[in-house]
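Notes from the 1:1 (GR / supervisor)

We went over the backlog. Supervisor wanted to see one worked example end to end before approving the batch request, so GR pasted a single chain during the call. The sequence is below; no edits were made to it. Supervisor asked that the structure be written out right there so they could see what the output format looks like.
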Amino acid sequence: MEMAKVLAQLKKVEPNELFTFIGVTQIESTKKSRITNDPTPSSKGYIKKVVVMSAILGGDYEKLVNNLREKEGSLPMFKANESYSFPISENGLLHKHKDKEQFYIQIYPNKCKATKCIEFYYDTNGNELTCEEFKAWMREYGVGYSNGNEKQAAHQGLQEALEVRRYKVENIKGLKHGNEKIDPDPELLATLNKFIKW
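Structure output shown during the call:
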């Protein structure tokens, strides 16, 4: 799929408009198990994660956190740390890495009730995993694993963290909003159609 085509469509998404995307990410393993310290077996080398998410545009991160802090009666005002990316589209969805030609979409899944997310996981050999199996693999082998929500809540000064997710545009394999639609490749579409209607 041409990234330029995806970028052009993302810039058209309107504020408060529901959009849906398909993201495919390959998560690499660490060299050793975090639990046993044994070398990671080749069968645990990586996991392919497929996300189908419907969401509404995020908006300004700092402003959103402060709105939530105000509701909780938290003071003083929250000041966001400098990010590695910055918004480049009027809708606030599309971000660019500050040092390289890397593009992301930034959304806040728990910002509104309209957000829906379905995830599928496949191991190195192409076997489908349950959510529990995926989480266990992440804890033991997944690169970049952390208990993010607890850390985020503490950083934001909130009882419940405003969840922030960034997805690389190069990993977006399908997108639709309004009457606009970019289909994934036939193989991925056939796999998804076993579980959902795209």
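Supervisor's comment: Residues 3-189 form one domain.
Batch request approved.
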